[in-house]
Design a protein that fits this description.
Alpha-Beta Plaits; 4 strands
Length: 296
């Protein structure tokens, strides 16, 4: 019975992933067709090359997207996880098909010379959310992400983000050969900046939390404050001061972002302690988000 429930849960989860892939594919097609096609700039990466080839040849960018991505996905099949390849392939086929369909039915585009900056900004928002969504699903939107994934699999210690950045900026600079306008390159930079911001936000946890690290010689008193006032647990590590050579305790805890004022107020009673905190990008596991949650 338990196995059957687990199978049903897994099936429903995969159906949800497929629906989210459909949503990301639709966002991709609309973002590119509606905003990018009518503006004089190219997105970074493979999508930018496909857009320029569409404008040069008249063939739909969806066709070029398939031409570029299919060989990459075939290679990725033997290197990366099959699930990653399958969902990326699904995204590629659906988004490319929708691009061709939108052109076939004569779907309107966002026109107007004065609207190119708006097109760059909003296409960056839509494509950034789309990319973040696919990455959260454990897949990608194809193109450079596939290349980066294969490089990471073969050379895990290589800075893949730098490789992606170089390729993206390379395609943007390459677009000057077609558009012959500095403004087009600047619009591509704007779009890429907005894209990075929103893709990054999609990858962060929906609720921000703060990591707190406290160096103190009063761990027992701080234990009372953290557990009974902030209602959070902590980890205590024995430490030694490098300058004083004295024994200390390093307390590590994660609290809600709105509890920073409470934390600073508590630390006023511990003038000899050293505290610093920074934002964390995500939280998993036991964590007290609500007032009635139990700290463990």
């Amino acid at each position: 019975m338990k196995v059957t429930i687990m199978k049903k849960t897994k099936t429903l989860k995969e159906i949800g992933y497929i629906l989210l892939t459909l949503l990301a594919s639709a966002m991709s097609a609309l973002g590119i067709y509606y905003f990018v096609y009518s503006a004089k700039f190219a997105p970074a990466g493979v999508e930018g090359i496909a857009t320029m080839l569409w404008q040069i040849t008249g063939l739909n960018a969806g066709i070029f997207s398939l031409i570029f991505n299919l060989p990459l996905l075939i290679a990725a099949w033997f290197i990366l996880k099959r699930r990653y390849v399958i969902y990326t392939l699904l995204f590629t086929f659906i988004s490319s098909g929708l691009l061709m369909m939108l052109e076939e039915i004569g779907f309107p585009t966002y026109g107007g010379e004065e609207g190119t900056l708006i097109a760059a900004i909003f296409s960056g928002v839509i494509l950034g959310v789309r990319t973040g969504l696919m990455l959260r699903l454990g897949a990608s939107t194809g193109g450079i992400d596939i290349i980066a994934g294969m490089i990471q699999a073969k050379r895990p210690h290589l800075n893949v983000e730098r490789v992606i950045t170089v390729i993206c900026y390379g395609t943007i600079l390459l677009s000057y050969l077609y558009y012959r306008e500095i403004g087009s390159i600047l619009l591509s930079f704007v779009q890429m900046f907005v894209f990075d911001v929103f893709a990054g936000r999609m990858l962060k946890d929906r609720r921000n939390a703060i990591e707190v690290m406290i160096v103190t010689d009063e761990p027992d008193r701080l234990r009372e404050a953290l557990i009974y006032k902030l209602k959070h647990g902590a980890t205590v590590i024995n430490a030694k001061g490098m300058y004083t050579d004295g024994e200390r305790s390093l307390i590590i805890s994660v609290i809600n972002i709105r509890q920073i004022p409470e934390l600073t107020d508590i630390m006023k009673d511990f003038p000899t302690s050293f505290t610093y905190y920074s934002e964390v990008s995500g939280i998993r596991g036991n964590f007290r988000w609500k007032k009635d949650d139990v700290a463990k």
